[in-house]
């Protein structure tokens, strides 16, 4: 049998690419914070007693973050290495989808929003409305918010990737941390692809 290009859905190359421009030119930026125990006699500082690692994977062509990819740290035979993995319930929708722009409101309890003024307000309101999706996956533009006794109504324009209007609605509903109301939902065209490789026509 003749071999075909190993690029069907489910292989590494179908998800290991930028979800916007499909470039495979990616890098991981790691923010590492460690606490090392110090040996009082030798001064040697080794074996982190505590560590925090946060990785953001970015496309070198369009410079966007890649929320459908995560970096996992492994330890094998005392050697450490990292590998990029797909976020299972997200990558197919984002890589194969198109951008959808929703005009919507989410109503949340005011204690779900850390701060609604100052430089942190936009992020804090986006997180209050959609959790991690609001700050890491979607492009969330908070237009304004209104206080209604102990609730906050957050008015936003949200861009997300999905394969259909139904899927976009489901994702927004799943992410919303309070009652969601979508006033409009429109499909946009995909940004241009960085390179035309194997499976693109
Ligand atoms: Zn890109």
| Spatial ordering of strands, largest sheet | 6-7-5-8
Q: Note the main sheet.
A: 4 strands, antiparallel
Low-confidence stretches: 1-8
Q: What is the 3D shape?
A: flat
Task: Give the termini separation.
Answer: 24 Å
Number of helices: 4
Task: Return the structural class.
Answer: alpha+beta
Proportion of residues in helical segments: 10-25%
Beta-strand percentage range: 35-45%
Bound small molecules, deduplicated: zinc ion
Counting DSSP E segments of at least 2 residues, the number of strands comes to: 8
The whole-angstrom Rg is 21 Å
What is the average per-residue confidence, as pLDDT, rounded to a whole number?
Answer: 88
What are the defining features of this structure?
201 residues; alpha+beta; four-stranded antiparallel beta sheet; flat; disordered N terminus; binds zinc ion
Give a quick summary of the entry.
19% of the residues lie in helices and 43% in strands. It has 201 residues and is an alpha+beta fold. It binds zinc ion.
Write up what this structure looks like.
The chain is 19% helix and 43% strand. The chain is of the alpha+beta class and 201 residues long. A hairpin with a 2-residue loop joins strand 6 (139-148) and strand 7 (151-162). The longest helix has 17 residues, at 121-137. Mean pLDDT is 88; it is low at 1-8. The structure holds zinc ion. Zinc ion (ZN) binds at residues 18, 20-21, 23, 59, 61-62, 64, 194.
């Amino acid at each position: 049998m003749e071999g075909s290009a190993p690029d069907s859905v489910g292989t590494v190359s179908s998800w290991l690419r930028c979800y916007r421009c499909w470039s495979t030119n990616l890098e991981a930026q790691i923010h590492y914070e460690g606490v090392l125990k110090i040996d009082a006699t030798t001064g040697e500082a080794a074996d982190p007693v505590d560590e925090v690692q946060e990785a953001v994977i970015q496309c070198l062509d369009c410079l966007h973050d890649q929320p459908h990819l995560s970096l996992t740290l492994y330890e094998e035979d005392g050697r450490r290495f990292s590998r990029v993995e797909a976020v299972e319930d997200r990558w197919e929708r984002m890589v194969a989808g198109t951008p959808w722009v929703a005009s919507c409101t989410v109503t949340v309890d005011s204690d779900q929003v850390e701060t609604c003024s100052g430089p942190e307000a936009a992020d804090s309101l986006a997180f209050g409305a959609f959790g991690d999706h609001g700050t890491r996956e979607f492009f969330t533009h908070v237009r304004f918010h209104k206080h209604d006794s102990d609730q906050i109504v957050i008015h936003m324009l949200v861009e997300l990737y999905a394969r259909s209007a139904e899927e976009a609605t489901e994702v927004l509903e799943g992410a919303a941390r309070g009652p969601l109301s979508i006033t409009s939902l429109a499909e946009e065209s995909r940004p241009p692809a960085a390179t035309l490789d194997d499976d693109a026509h």
